[in-house]
Design a protein that fits this description.
CATH architecture of the largest domain: 3-Layer(aba) Sandwich
CATH topology of the largest domain: Rossmann fold
CATH superfamily of the largest domain: ANL, N-terminal domain
Strand content: 15-25%
Number of strands: 27
Mean pLDDT: 91
Shape: globular
Oligomer: single chain
CATH class of the largest domain: Alpha Beta
Radius of gyration: 23 Å
Helix content: 25-40%
């Protein structure tokens, strides 16, 4: 740590050392809470030491990796943090992926130990784990019991001092495809998220309620700052809107991270306004498009600030929209964070002026080292300006306005080219959401002999609404340009989503190809 008046002013410090300082100052203060357990800072610090010492006993050295695949819990978090104290890299893996994809991720990470629970035992079975020794966090038969694996109480690891460039974790962004890509994030990147916390009221009185999974970067960008600043993290293994509101009220929640579909489900509850959420300081969101009308509703009915982060797990720049401070910019994802260079480029790699749409690229102090063991894919997402400065391609299409706010048009890969015209699904989805019967909508491009591609919509109606698909399609087509007209519209009970709320458009395309119109 460089000399500074506060650890949070330092260019770099260790999150694990911050936790130790809190343990020394206030060992009884709650650090981690789940439905079954509560760990104070003193208990957490001691457990982290035992985890680190156990890994060292097993021969793991700084730079080696472990995998964790389990529901969010205090023990999951303690193992993650304890591994970091030993300089070991953590690969938090998504439950529910196909065994082959799981095996690929575990092999790619080079994990030397795998921590699991009974809920994912099938995914992490002998055929999928490649013989990696398994430790069961919950004492189940999924592996060796954690308590029998741990070094004795009072054990202390050999000191390790990670540097900013050392790998912190490997986040797998596409484990459902069978071709997982591991995004390597460094200790310096994570510390930059902690430092950003000074802007959002983190402190020893923080109570952060997290209902997204710990294998997701969405969760981790609030999880680590909350602990580094000495607050309490309350973990929900599975999101349930009614239970979330009960916990938020009882715990006097101050901070939370939710994806847009969770905000939608919370705000739609008839009893939402009866809950006392007045302790809320800041609500965060990221990972998926957050429509302006929903943001406005959150601002109107839920106390505290609303902050949207736009960026990638790969790093490469973040835009921040402090929605409470910029109510006329709710259609945007905000302005580049301090020290982040975000640009819009055309197909030839030329930087575009204000108002013109192109691919969004970004550079920041917190960028991934690269995709683990995938140098070619790493190079494919890099763009360099004329000075040699490195940027990460986002794959998003956007434009800046005159005030420096970025509006996203759509995902580049989701753009539909129909009859030579570029169509953006987000434009059509916005029109669909204007209909009072529509709760959710997703538009995809499907093959067309006449046009090359043609837009098709999948729609979820609001509860109690009865509307024919053809009638809704006609309503939309009367309000869009001729080239934008939907060729088909399907009503469904729900849209396929990832664990962090992203609509899985690939699944919708596959579904449509399997069951085309007519």
């Amino acid at each position: 740590m460089t000399a500074a008046t506060s650890p949070f002013e330092a260019d770099f410090d260790l999150i694990t050392e911050q936790i130790r300082r809190h343990a020394q100052a206030a060992p009884q203060r709650r650090a981690l809470v789940d439905p079954q357990h509560t760990l104070g800072y003193g208990e957490l610090d001691a457990l982290m030491d035992r985890v680190a010492a156990s890994l060292q006993r097993d021969g793991l050295r700084p730079g080696d990796a472990i995998g964790i695949c389990a529901a969010s819990s205090t023990l999951y978090a303690a193992v993650f943090l304890g591994a970091l104290r030993a300089g070991v890299v953590v690969a938090p893996l998504a439950p529910g992926v196909l065994p082959a994809a799981f095996a690929n991720m575990l092999r790619d990470a080079g994990a030397k130990r795998l921590f699991v629970d009974a809920s994912v035992a099938a995914t992490t079975g002998p055929l999928a784990d490649g013989g990696v020794p398994r430790i069961a966090l919950d004492g189940s038969e999924a592996g060796q019991a954690l308590q029998s694996w741990l070094a004795p109480e009072g054990a202390r690891p050999q000191p390790v001092s990670p540097e900013p460039a050392w790998p912190f974790n490997i986040i797998y962004s596409s484990g459902t495809t069978g071709e997982p890509k591991g995004i390597v994030q460094g200790h310096g990147m994570r510390w930059s998220h902690v430092k950003r916390g000074r802007n959002y009221g983190y402190g020893e009185d923080t109570v952060a309620l997290l209902s997204t999974p710990l294998y997701s970067n969405t969760t981790l960008v609030v999880f680590f700052p909350s602990l580094a600043w000495g607050g309490t993290v309350v973990l929900m293994p599975k999101f349930d809107a009614a239970r979330y509101l009960q916990i938020a009220e009882t715990e006097r929640m101050t901070h939370t991270m939710l994806v847009p579909v969770q905000y939608q489900r919370l705000m739609a509850r008839p009893d939402f306004d009866r809950h006392n959420l007045s302790a809320t300081r800041v609500k965060f969101s990221t990972s998926a498009p957050f429509n302006a009308a929903l943001k406005a509703d959150v601002l109107k009915r839920w106390p505290g600030g609303l902050v949207e982060f736009y960026g990638m797990t790969e790093g490469g720049g973040t835009c921040i929209l402090e929605a409470h401070a910029h109510p006329t910019k709710l259609h945007t994802v905000g302005r580049p964070s301090e020290g982040h260079d975000i640009r819009v480029i055309d197909e030839a790699g030329r930087t575009l002026p204000v108002g013109e749409a192109g691919e969004v690229v970004g550079h920041s102090p917190g960028m991934m080292t690269g995709y683990h063991n995938r140098p070619e894919q790493t190079r494919a997402v890099e763009w360099f300006d004329e000075t040699g400065k490195r940027f990460i391609r986002t794959g998003d299409v956007g434009r800046f306005d005159e005030d420096g706010f970025l509006t996203l048009v759509d995902r580049k890969k989701d753009m539909i080219i129909s009859g030579g015209f570029n169509l953006y699904p987000s434009d059509l989805e916005a029109v669909l959401r204007e209909h009072p019967a529509v709760a959710e909508a997703s538009v995809i491009g499907v093959p067309s002999e006449q046009w090359g591609e043609t837009p098709v919509a999948y729609v979820v109606l609001r509860e109690g609404q009865d509307l024919a698909a053809d009638a809704l399609r006609e309503w939309v087509n009367e309000r869009v340009g001729k080239t934008q007209r939907l060729s088909d519209l399907r009503l469904v009970g729900e849209l396929p989503r990832s664990a962090i709320g992203k609509v899985l458009k690939r699944e919708l395309r596959d579904l449509y190809v399997a069951r085309p119109a007519g």
